[in-house]
Amino acid sequence: MTPETEDHVAEIVRGANGPLSIRGGGTRHAPAEGEALTTAGLSGITLYEPGALTLVARAGTPMAEVEAALAAEGQRLPFEPMDHRPLLGTSGTPTIGGAVAMNVSGPRRVQAGACRDSLIGVRFVDGGGHVVKNGGRVMKNVTGYDLVKLLAGSRGALGILTEVSFKVLPAAATQATLRLDGLDEVHAVTAMAAALSSPFEVSAAAHDPQAGETVLRLEGLAGSVDYRAGRLAEVLTPFGATERIEGDASTALWRGIRDAEPVAGAGDVWRVHVRASRAGEVVARAGAEAALLDWGGGLVWLRVPEGSDLPAALGDLGAHATRVTGPAYAPVQPPALAALEQGIRVQFDPRGVFSAGAPEHA
Prior knowledge:
25% strand; single chain; 13 helices; alpha+beta; 17 strands; Alpha-Beta Plaits; four-stranded antiparallel beta sheet; 362 residues; Uridine Diphospho-n-acetylenolpyruvylglucosamine Reductase, domain 3
């Protein structure tokens, strides 16, 4: 089913006799359970005010359309959403609603925050077929429960997004990347922490163990980037000499990190959120075939042998793991958390219409 209006979505939900499998642009592996309903028909930018740094779009709007409209005005989405296709080997078209449903947040999260931090309003259809609106077109416009933040990252388990509103930012005039070679995970995390805690406004910090490189990105006006790059190189002197990468090479490097390309391949891919200081332990315990540290080490991408019980391997590290590829994973949650999650789901979806969209995490 491909409804083209919000009212049609609500009608479908009200008439559903079983679970619905909610899909966006088809760039991720869709759950098999339930009748497929795609938001691709809900497309188009409904409001864009560059002067107010505000954009509103229907959930099925292709990400490329949103980014092109912003680029034409010298603006961008702050949270740098990834494209899952290189990692998952899928086709389809990334959509703005899919980015919200997954709370997709790229390397710039260390500076600009996650997708939910730029999201200022949502419209969605809940499990009873009711159209719900929360937030608005300006920051701090939420009264009552902040459903905007709740829906971001809910993966379709609470409702079908129909429209999303964002606060956008000016695009950077230029960027430069400083690269360090030969650091292990522990020293790479220390170097990234030194860079991120410096006053030189690092917008991304990542480490690729396979390539043996640690990279740090600076963005802004050309003169500012030149100055900050020189000063940051001084901060990083204890970790070795830095190489500067600019232009298309820098852009391509961060696109690959954004899309987790270093861990693409056969096996199970996991995202692990952990305290950055423990990222090295995560890689060591995982027995990973490939790894990538982003967000200064706070996000660890891992490719492990198929069927590996990664949560068991990570044990008491305090890590939160989400399987991205491979068989479905049913986490064991603390009773209090499981009861809270179930209580929220019942309020939004008492008939279990969106059960096929339940998140998988650990």
